[in-house]
Amino acid sequence: MTHLNHDEPYSDEYLQGILKSVKTIAMVGASPDKTKFSYGVLRVLHETGYDMIPINPRPGLEEIRGIKVYPNLAAIDRPVDMVEVFRKPKDLYCIAEEAIAIGAKVLWGQIGVVNHDAAHLAEEAGLKVVMNRCPKIELFRPFWKPKLHLGI
Fold first, then answer.
1. What backbone phi and psi angles, to 5 degrees, belong to 63?
2. 24 - beta bridge partners?
3. pLDDT in tens, 107-150
4. Which pLDDT band holds residue 88 (cuts at 50, 70, 90)?
5. Mind listing the domains of the chain with CATH numbers?
6. In what order do the strands lie in the sheet with 128-130?
7. Handedness of CA 50, 51, 57, 61 (dihedral sign)
8. Distance (Å, rounded) from C-alpha 136 to C-alpha 48?
9. Coil, helix or strand at residue 2
10. Which of 7, 20, 84, 129 could be joined to 119 by an S-S link, Cβ 3.0–4.6 Å?
């Protein structure tokens, strides 16, 4: 298992490797509100070709952008490569436990979502961890430009 220093910048190779290898992304904290950052990230990742799974326990919320919403990670009916988290940093530990339980390969905390205990737990279980970064931003960094038309 690899333990990264999450206070240091991640290498381009590490981030690129994750974004090229994952196909299915469960987004914890996905919102149907078009003004929310999570909605924009969901839209871009979906349009880029990722199989997005919005997670939101709100009663009556059945879909976002035509994609079925699940109340929690345990309710998902297919394998998940990456769990992306738009929640408070203190929530990340419980979400890490859930991500491990469903066999996810990556735990990704959105910008502002940092919890070193959660990162340690996930890494001990063999997951790769990214915190305080946005996959939408990482996708469009210069090292991706030549690869954008190759499909993901």
1. -155, 155
2. 51
3. 999 999 999 999 999 999 999 999 999 999 998 876 555 555 54
4. very high
5. 12-150 (3.40.50.720)
6. 51-55, 24-28, 82-85, 106-109, 128-130
7. positive
8. 9
9. coil
10. 129
How far apart are the C-alpha atoms of 77 and 109, rounded to whole Å?
23
Closest CA to 134 of 7, 20, 38: 38
Q: Tokens 């929310």 appear where? A: 36
Q: Which residue is listed with tokens 């070193």?
A: 116
- Per residue in 42-82, pLDDT (tens digit) is 999 999 999 999 999 999 999 999 999 999 999 999 999 99
In Å, how far from its chain's centre is CA 118?
14
The first and second tokens of residue 56, run together, are 């939101």
Q: What are the Cα distances from residue 69, in Å, to 24, 62, 65, 108? A: 14, 5, 10, 19
What is the amino acid identity at position 50? Y
CB 86 within 8 A of CB 28: yes
Residue type, 11: S
